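tool=predict chain=A
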Amino acid sequence: MGFDLDAARLLPPNIRFGCSSWKYDGWKGQTYKREYKSKKAFETESLREYAEFPWFRAIGLDHTFYTPPKTSQLDSYVERIPKGMKWLAKVWDRVTIPKYGNSRRYGDLAGKENPHFLDPVMFRDEFIAPFERQDFLAHTGPFMFQFQDVYRTFADLEEFVTRLDGFLSGIPKRHQYAIELRTPQVLDTRYFAVLAEHGVTHVVNHWGTMPSLVDQMRKAAAGGGESARVSTSPAC
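tool=predict ok
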């Protein structure tokens, strides 16, 4: 992959590189040197080898966007990653999408309004609850809320930011949270003020029509000054 593996030792402890998943066949022969008996064995056991790669100190749990994790899943991850490695879990889309798409995976909900959009009770009781065990918390980094293009639902984006403010007021304060937007029009002073008030991080990203990384950071600085915090998604 072109990394200087020895240089990874020089990384400050507060800087963590990682990817949104570890299940990449294309890494075989590079990051992954071991032989795996099957696709299932690779997807399960390669996490251990991923965690041994010197540059990786974080891992994204992108599958939690589709369904909350089972305790048994988190147990298996803890068994395969070292002390100090953090995971970033993407929040269940039942909390982050205002209207269900027409995908078959939504079943009877396809195309309907989502009554649990930004529902703090569903987030607390059905998504975050499996993470609350002490040994899981030791590996838990930010929970990331990925919002698709909310312009399709909220012509008045102030309404979205107001609802976001109310939601952040109602969720547990003991965790770290980050927000990834796909709607550049939301990036204004009000949005960053809400994030600063709740100690939430804006995720700088390359998605679609979003401004450049530098422009997003400038908007964050203009919107919240020193209290505006930014991070980048775990991606390769």
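The two ends are 11 Å apart (CA to CA). The first helix runs from residue 39 to 52.
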